[in-house]
Amino acid sequence: MSTNQGSAKWNGGLKSGNGSISTLSGALKDFPYSFSNRFEGEKGLNPEELIGAAHASCFSMALSMMLEQAGMPPEHVHTQASITLDKDGDGFAVTKSHLDVIARIPGAEAQKFEEIAAQAKAGCPISRLLSCEISMAAQLEA
């Protein structure tokens, strides 16, 4: 079993306040975030961006493992996760995570790759954590 930790501090009101995010590993230490980063398009970190990075990295590792187990070791897997935050009643909800995947696997059969990618999408730990719709477009790179 592995236990990891992330923490956040928030100061002040929602729109006028600001916060910082840290991880136990120190990869993020007091990294700033704010309402405007999340809801007004201002450049900067926000929770959905972190979820996207977590989903993309988890999926990429799961897919690489499953491809290797199937005798199709990838040269590389590049994944981008797009997280959708929608208005939900009086609040907001993460409603979708879309994975765009490009993998280079010499000699791979497209149908087998797509089957394994679908299994990785369903089975990676972050996919299993998310209760939103998860879609994917996976392609082999020539």
UniProtKB/TrEMBL annotation:
<protein>
    <submittedName>
        <fullName>OsmC family protein</fullName>
        <ecNumber>1.11.1.29</ecNumber>
    </submittedName>
</protein>
<dbReference type="InterPro" id="IPR052707">
    <property type="entry name" value="OsmC_Ohr_Peroxiredoxin"/>
</dbReference>
<dbReference type="InterPro" id="IPR015946">
    <property type="entry name" value="KH_dom-like_a/b"/>
</dbReference>
<dbReference type="GO" id="GO:0004601">
    <property type="term" value="F:peroxidase activity"/>
</dbReference>
<keyword id="KW-0560">Oxidoreductase</keyword>
<dbReference type="InterPro" id="IPR019904">
    <property type="entry name" value="Peroxiredoxin_OsmC"/>
</dbReference>
<dbReference type="Pfam" id="PF02566">
    <property type="entry name" value="OsmC"/>
</dbReference>
<dbReference type="InterPro" id="IPR003718">
    <property type="entry name" value="OsmC/Ohr_fam"/>
</dbReference>
<dbReference type="InterPro" id="IPR036102">
    <property type="entry name" value="OsmC/Ohrsf"/>
</dbReference>
<keyword id="KW-0575">Peroxidase</keyword>
